[in-house]
Amino acid sequence: MINETPEVLAIRGKWGVGKTFAWNKFLEDAKKERRITLRRYAYVSLFGCNSLDSLKLRIFEQVIDTDSIGLKPSIETFIKSIENLTLGINLLKFIPSLPYFKNANLSLFIDSVAFLSLNKVLICIDDVERKGDGLKIRDLLGFISVLKEEKDCKIAIILNDESLSNNEDEALKTYREKVIDIELLFDPTPEECSEIAIPSECYYSSKIKEFSKNLRINNIRIIRKILRLSNQLEPLLKGYEPELLHQSLHTMTLLALCYFQKDNNKIPSYEYLKNLGYKMYGFNDKEETEETNEWKVFLRKYSFYNIDEFDLEIAKAIENGFFNESSLLAEADKLNARIIANKSKNSFSEAWNKYHNTFDSNEIELVESLYESFKENAQYIDPMNLNSTVKLLRDIGESQKADEIIELYIQNRKSDREIFDLKRYPFASNIDDQRLIERFNSENKYDNNDRSPEEVISSLVGKNGWNQSDIEILSSLTVDDFYQIFTKQNGDHLSYWIDVCLQFAQILNPSEEQKVISNKASEALVRIGKQSSLNARRVAKFGIKVESDA
Q1: Which of 84, 295, 345, 536 could be cross-linked to 268 through a Cys-Cys bond (beta carbons 3.0 to 4.6 Å apart)?
Q2: How confident is the model at residue 355 (pLDDT cuts 50, 70, 90)?
């Protein structure tokens, strides 16, 4: 119960733990439960406040009925406060005729009489450590004492556990015991923080609540920032696989904690996390320290082992405060396809379990299961698994089904035609079904050399391999060809295209043709870099150093 007894309450705690948020939430709950007996309320921030007169006016401007707690003060509530002055509404009619107002501002007059109206008001005073230098802590506490003793007000002061400006800490220590009746330490547990900050129970909020608890986040401000980002993310990722939604929130909670608490050496540094993905490619070979080893333990407990391109889009949103929808969805599409592919492989493996895990006479069930699973997952099955499935069907007398599966596979993979080039596979000798080999060879007669260089480069984005026709087309290009290709591109794909052309210099034992591709592409980028200092910076991110011609 928030009764009418005049008293001063101080709520103190570390910066960011959510004292203000908690106060507002508890106050709204008390209003809903009709536990506030005072009729008026004002919330005042001392940010930049330089005098008691200014503070008096701020309080007066912010007064609302307690029934309106949760709503922001407005011009209507301000006028109502004026009407509630001792002189009442008649004062409003009389004010314009006063000579004083011919040369003065209305707010200055109200400033002189506003204090008269502050009787039996519930007042919250926040941001004490951010007050202006002109308002001394001694005068502030003295004014609060007057509000309590003479105006029968009930005052809550929100204090951060940090030093005041101009060495006013001693003054606060001296006068706080005389003025403050009750002092509470607000130090919620991570569980309490998540419950206070995340009241709703939708999928996104419940996951953030779970991850916040796992990371032991006891800073309500950070949790609220994560929640605001998740509200932006939710409509963007509707329709994607649940695993992708889980990863987005799991990653975002961790990255946000590390970004907003950069001075906390008990958690991994934000930059360490952003570069975590490069370790698996051998690009981050810095010697591990005791600190980074502790970070690894921290991340293992959170089940976080690597960061991918989709995660880096989440990181950009944390830094900027909003999501780049096009680049986020481009990475989400790629990740979603990988998730679906993995599920499909598992589904196909389950169909094979009817062969491996039993001696039952289940030929009909086995054939049906393999066939149906293959129809659903053909785009995710490699030629080796195709060959094994076809051979099994032939061995049990289902050659017609085997042929149907081959045709089904070809129809599903026509957009990825290099898959029909069996020479590109190191395990090609293990593919031995003659019908399959004939049909693949027939499809492979498609003249790859009719493709444009742009089509070839685009087809290699995101792929771990290439065929000889790809190498022949790209190695035949001149430096000027690469220059024209790169300078004519605009969009997210440009970086991927450049990476494709430079990748051959990074592989083990590249052929002469592969070296030529990367060397010519590099020369083209050097030429682009020499065009301007801006372009020099742009190509530098690909490891291209541009020497000055001077």
Answers
A1: 295
A2: confident
